[in-house]
Amino acid sequence: MTPTSEWRKPHPYLVGNFSPIHESPCLTQCNYIGTIPSELAGGQYVRNGGNPLLNSDLRREAHWFDGDGMLIGVVFRRTEDGSIVPEFVSRYILTDAYLMSVTTPSLRYPIIPSIATLVNPASTLLHILRSIFRAFILVLLSYLPGSHQAIKRISVANTNVLYHDGRALATCESGPPMRVLLPRLETVGWFDGCKAEGEPPTEATQGVAFGNDIGSFNILTERITAHPREDPLTKELILFHSTFFAPFVYYSVIPSTHLKNCNTQPRRLINKPIPGIKSAKMMHDMGLSRRSCVIMDLPLSLDPLNMMRNKPIVSYNSSEPSRFGVFPRWEPEAVRWFETSPCCIFHTANTWDDLKSIPETLEYADNVIAVNMLVCRLTSASLVYSAGDIAVSHVEAKKKSIYPVEEEQCRLYYYRFLLSDTQNIITHQFALSAIPFEFPTIPQNLSMSQARYIYGCTLSKSTFGTALGGAAKIDCLAKIDSSMLIRRAQGSTPTPITGCVDNRSVAEIINSNDNDNSIKIFKLPPGHFAQEPRFIPRYDGKFEDDGWLLSYVFDESQLKQDGFARSDAKSELWVIDAVTMEKVMCKIRLPQRVPYGLHGSWFSEQDILNQRPVDTIREVPCNFKKINTNKLSLEAIYGKILNYVH
C-alpha cells in the first residue's frame, strides 16, 4: 500500500489558492486603486512557483516544492503622458519536462517524482524505486522519434528568478538556470554558465560550463543552488553545485561581461570543490558577504544511498551537528568548518564581514576578523514534511545529542564565526526574535554588507513547520531591526543556541503601545494572505527602509465551501509603505489568482532594456500529433509504453 491510498481528501497543497492556474501569456492591463510610486515605472515584479500541469488526481502524493515552474509578473509600463499602467502576465517555463508533458496526452501524472515520495518515512523501497524507474523510463522514451521533446535536464525551474549580466534566470536545484525574456516571460533556453540556448553565438563567454569537468553524467552534475547571489558592486554571480558523489559540493563565481569593454578575460571560478563534506546533502542557500562565503552542511541528507539504510532519500538526522564552512570568495580550498547544534536552514537573510581596516590595506586572512550571518533557522526538518502533508509523528524521534533540546520554531537567528582565532569558534548564536520568520528580503544594494532592516513573512497563529493538514498561510509581514536587536544582546547576551533577544509573540507586538520599534508587523485583514515580499527603495530615500514592499495578496472569501477556488477568483498586488508598515499605497487588481508560491525578484527598467539579444525562444508545438498506437513503429512503441507508465 502506498501513502497515496491512505488519503481520503484532496491534498491541501493542491486545493484552495495552492491549486494551479491556467497561464495568461498576453500582457493584460490591470485596474488599481491608490497611487503607484514612481520608483516602479518601467520595472517588473516577477514571482516563481510550482504550478503542476498534470493535476487530475488531487489525492496523489504532492509537495509544495513540486510542480512545473510558472512565472507570474506585473510590469509597470510607462505611457507617453507620463502615467504608469500595470500589466499582468503569467507563463509556464518551457522546461524539457513541461514540453514532454504538454505534448504527450497519455501522461496523467507528473514526470518527476514528488518530493513527498522521497521524504516520506512511510514510503516503501518498492514505491520509491517504482517512482524513480518510471521517471527514468520516461526520460529514455523522450529520445525516441515519437517524442516532441527530449528530456536533457530534469529541472522544473520552479523555485526562484533573478537577474545577472543581461539575463533573467529561473532556478531550481535539480538543474541549471533557465533564461527567460522580460517582460513577456518567454522561455529562451538553459544557461550553462557560458551561454544560454537561443542566444546568438556572439553572447557566449569562453570557459568551462556548469558540471562539465565534474563528471560525464551532466543531468546530475550541472545542478546548481536555487539561490545564486549577484554581488551588487562587482556584478559577479556566486553559486554552488551539490551532487551525489564526493566531494559532494562545488563552487563557482561567474563574472559580468555584458555591456563591458574588457581587454582581458575577467576572473572566473568554475566547478571548484569545497573540501570537508562527507555525504550528499540537501543544500538550498548559502551566506555571501563582500569577501566571504558561508556554505551550510546541515543534517538534512539528499542521498539515494539512504534507501540501502532503510531511510527516505531525503532524511533528517537530529543527532548530527550543523556545520558551517567559511572561506574567502576566491579560495574555497581554504574553508574553515564550525560546528554547532543541529538545525535546518533554507534561507539566509544577510551576511557581512567584521574588518580590521577600512578601506582595506591587508590580505583577507589578516583583515577579516569575523563573518556574521542572519538566517531563518528551523529547529527540525518539520517544514519539509508538513509541506508534503506528511505526519511529523512518523519522523524518526530525536536521538541523544550533546546539544540542548529545542522546541519547534523557525526564527530569525544570528551567527558570528570568529576567524581571528586559530580555533573555529562561534562567538554568538541566538535568535533575534521569537516570532516565526521566513522568506527574508533586504535592499538589493545591501545584500552583501550589513543591513539594518530584515523584511519577511510571519504567522499570527501557527509556525511554518506545524501546518499539517492545512498548509502554512502568511497573514503578516514583519520588519525586524536586526542592528538594534544585536546591540541589545551586547548588554545581556542570550543563552547560546536556545536564547532569544526579543521574546514577544506576534500578537504582543501588534498590540504593543510602547516605543519599542525593533519589530513592526503589518497584519493583513482577516482571510487575506500574502506571499514573499520584495523591497523597492525610494529614489531620494534618506534612510535604509525608505521604500516599498511588494507582495501578492489573496482574499480567501473567494474560496467555495469545499475549499476550492471559484473560477472568477482574483488576487491583488499590494504596494506597502516599508517605513511605517501600516499604509497600503496601492492595490493592483489582477485578472486571475496568483497561487501561493515561492520566490520573486524586482527587475528595474534598465534590467529589462539591457537584456542580451535572443535569436530563438522555446515554444509549444502548435500542431503536435497524437500518437497512433495501432501502427508498428517506434512512435507506436513509444505510445504503448507511455500508456503503461502513465
Automatic annotation (TrEMBL):
InterPro entries: Carotenoid_Oase. Binds 1 Fe(2+) ion per subunit. One of its GO terms (molecular function) is metal ion binding. Fe cation binds at residues 227, 284, 347, 599. Keywords: Dioxygenase, Iron, Metal-binding, Oxidoreductase. GO terms for biological process: carotene catabolic process. The keyword Iron applies. It comes from the Eukaryota. The keyword Hydrolase does not apply. It holds the Pfam family RPE65. Its cofactor is Fe(2+). Belongs to the carotenoid oxygenase family. This is Carotenoid 9,10-cleavage dioxygenase 1. It comes from Erysiphe neolycopersici.
